[in-house]
Design goal:
Layout lengths: L7 H25 L9 H19 L1 H4 L12 H6 L8 H9 L1 H13 L1
Length: 115
């Protein structure tokens, strides 16, 4: 079995995880500032979170099966993604924990550009 190969799939997963994270943050912010009323749409934020966590987890595995190491930056994002659902969505801590993942996504995107 030869060495892992560079894969466009790794880059696409990092991009998809980042876009899901941004969409989730934008939705959550819109709800927090009452731009969107979610009485019947609460499941949207939860669904976006599940997609974000799943894509981030999948992207974080890509260094195992490709030469692309940019997804290593996503590993620290897994901590806020694990903690966020356990914080009160109406508390500042929820927002703070969610934003704590942002540098990981930015690092993953910026490191791709250098590769």
């Amino acid at each position: 079995m030869g060495p892992p190969v560079r894969s466009g799939a790794a880059r696409r997963l990092v991009t998809a995880a980042t876009l899901a994270y941004v969409a989730n943050c934008l939705w959550g912010t819109a709800v927090a500032v009452r731009l969107i009323r979610t009485k019947k749409l609460r499941v949207v934020h939860h669904g976006l979170f599940v997609v974000t966590a799943t894509l981030t987890g999948a992207a974080a595995t890509t260094p195992v099966w490709t030469r692309d190491r940019s997804a290593l930056f996503l590993l620290p994002a897994l901590v806020p993604l694990a903690v966020a659902p356990r914080t009160d969505p109406r508390a500042r801590a929820h927002w703070s924990v969610a934003v704590a993942a942002a540098p990981s996504y930015l690092g993953a995107l910026l490191s791709r550009r250098r590769a």
